[in-house]
Structure formats: structure tokens, C-alpha cells
């Protein structure tokens, strides 16, 4: 029941976001995507044997991977295949009520993209077992993301690990 309520709330948030986008006359793209999470411990610098780094491959707003505030002005770092989202593209994840910007590569995302599956990997703060537990808890097989969203959507403050849909 708890899981159903979370998904219902996410659906309502998506509808609310869409109605505000439509009322502003913006061209909106809302897509479903597999959403995973990564952090310092499982990030690499392009070499999969170099884990434990905040290096990003397509710096657009940040010099290194950041969860940041999740606002339009200070979005978190997102990794995906650059053929899905070009570097610098902002997205909004209604289920988390947070903005992200495409700034990093993701090998698994590229594999999925080549198989026709959208996949984004969102950066979260932390290290150790808490980070791994957060990443697992927040992973969503399919959720809506809004590409090129307006700047005025509702944002939850704090880390996605503390405020996310899981748990």
C-alpha cells in the first residue's frame, strides 16, 4: 500500500507539473526513464578501475559531480548517454521534486540507450554503506522525467537520499 501511495503521489506531481507547463505555453517533453543513482564511491574518471572520484565528463554547470540544491539554478549532476540528453540539458524528476543537469557519461545508460531503453543516473551525496543503500532504495524502474522544464516547479530541500521516494 505504501508503494502504491508513493507512485500515486508521483503521478499527481507529474500531472501538476504538466498543467503548469501547458499553461505557460512551453514545449514540453515528458518521457519515462529508468532512473538509477550514483555517488563518489561508484563514480569513475572514464576508467572503470578508477572508482572514488567526483570527475565528470561533460561539465556544464559544475566543475565536479554535485548533488547541489536540486533547484533550477543549482541542479544536481545527471549522467546518461549524450544521444539521449545533450550535455547541459536540464531535467526535472517529479518523483523526487528535483532538477538535474546532464554533465556526465554513464556506460550502463549507453548500453540501455542502444537497446532502446532510456536510462539516467542521478548523483547523490555520501559515501560508504549509506550511499549504497540510498542508491538501491531510490532506483526506479520507470518514472517520468521532464526535459527542459520551466524554472518554477516545486523543489524538496535536502538530499534526495533523505527525501526521496524510497524507504
Question: In brief, what are we looking at here?
Answer:
The chain has helices spanning 2-23, 107-114, 128-138, 160-163; strands spanning 29-38, 76-79, 90-93, 98-104, 119-123, 140-147. With 167 residues, the protein is α/β, with parallel strands linked by helices.
SSE inventory with pairings:
Blueprint: H1 2-23, E1 29-38, E2 76-79, E3 90-93, E4 98-104, H2 107-114, E5 119-123, H3 128-138, E6 140-147, H4 160-163
Parallel strand pairs: 1-5, 2-4
Antiparallel strand pairs: 1-6, 2-5, 3-4, 3-6
Number of strands: 6
- Quaternary state reads single chain
Summarize the amount of helix as a percent range. 25-40%
Q: End-to-end span in angstroms? A: 13 Å
Strand order in the sheet with the most strands: 1-5-2-4-3-6
The computed structural class is alpha/beta
Mean pLDDT: 83
Provide the gyration radius in Å. Answer: 15 Å
The geometry reads as globular
Stretches with pLDDT under 50, minimum 5 residues: none
Largest sheet: 6 strands, mixed, barrel
Please trace the helix and strand order, writing H or E for each element.
HEEEEHEHEH
